[in-house]
Write a structure and sequence with these properties.
Layout lengths: L1 H16 L18 H4 L7 H7 L5 H7 L2 H16 L4 H23 L2 H16 L2 H31 L4 H7 L1 H10 L6 H10 L4 H14 L2 H6 L1
Helix pairs in contact: 1-8, 11-12
């Protein structure tokens, strides 16, 4: 339901503000070979194909390909299997330590993210000139203003119904928000977000389930951007 609100708000903004209208690029003349690998997974699938695609060909393949639904299926089956093992808690503890190590690796990589952003900007200016930055700036301004409206109004009403202030919560997550703005990716803030939610008193089980699930199925910011 919330994702649908994000889609509708994004469509309304695009209809009236038309970000990208000033970019004089002809899609017919653009070289799309470099993005073919990224566009292919986004093609529409039939219901049967979608359901079959959730089942991984191999255990390792789901992680290697980055198929989120396949990884979730493996995680669910793995968790159910652990409940029947006498010393399953030891495996859970090992997985938690492994996850912390992966989050540590992510934090190290994200420190190099500004270099990647610099390279992308240099490529854009080199191919389309400085005037392209104005159009891109307008696009990002529209995106961030729309996202702010969505957070304050839609999430604000949900927060009010749950008896807490969305503004106070945003202030509490200010470091993570700055990190998201700097890297243009919410995934970079995931480790810090989970840690702060546990500090607020949320149980480990709740945080471990709700946050990864939300990152997989409730991509409101991505829907607004699209």
């Amino acid at each position: 339901v919330v994702t649908t609100f994000a889609l509708v708000i994004g469509l309304v903004v695009v209809k009236f503000l038309q970000p990208g209208a000033g970019i004089n690029a002809n899609p017919a003349t653009l070289d799309t070979k470099s993005i073919a690998a990224y566009a292919a997974p986004g093609q529409a699938l039939s219901t049967v194909d979608f359901l079959l695609n959730i089942i991984p060909e191999t255990l390792v393949g789901a992680f290697a390909k980055g198929e989120i639904l396949q990884v979730l299926l493996i995680a669910i089956l793995f968790g159910v299997a652990l409940t029947g093992i006498e010393h399953g808690h030891r495996v859970v503890t090992a997985c938690e330590h492994f996850g912390q190590a992966m989050f540590g690796i992510m934090e190290i990589i994200m420190k190099a993210a500004p270099l990647g952003a610099f390279g992308a900007m240099a490529y854009t200016i080199g191919n389309h000139g400085f005037q392209a930055l104005g159009s891109l700036l307008y696009l990002m301004a529209c995106f961030y203003l729309t996202s702010a409206f969505f957070v304050i109004v839609v999430l604000g009403l949900i927060a009010k119904a749950a008896n807490f202030s969305i503004i106070q919560f945003l202030i509490y997550l200010r470091e993570e928000i700055i990190l998201v703005i700097g890297t243009s990716s919410s995934e970079t803030a995931m480790p810090g977000l989970m840690k702060k939610l546990r500090s607020l008193g949320c149980s480990q089980a709740t945080v471990g389930l709700v946050v990864p699930t939300g990152y997989s199925f409730n991509l409101d910011g991505t829907n607004i951007y699209m």
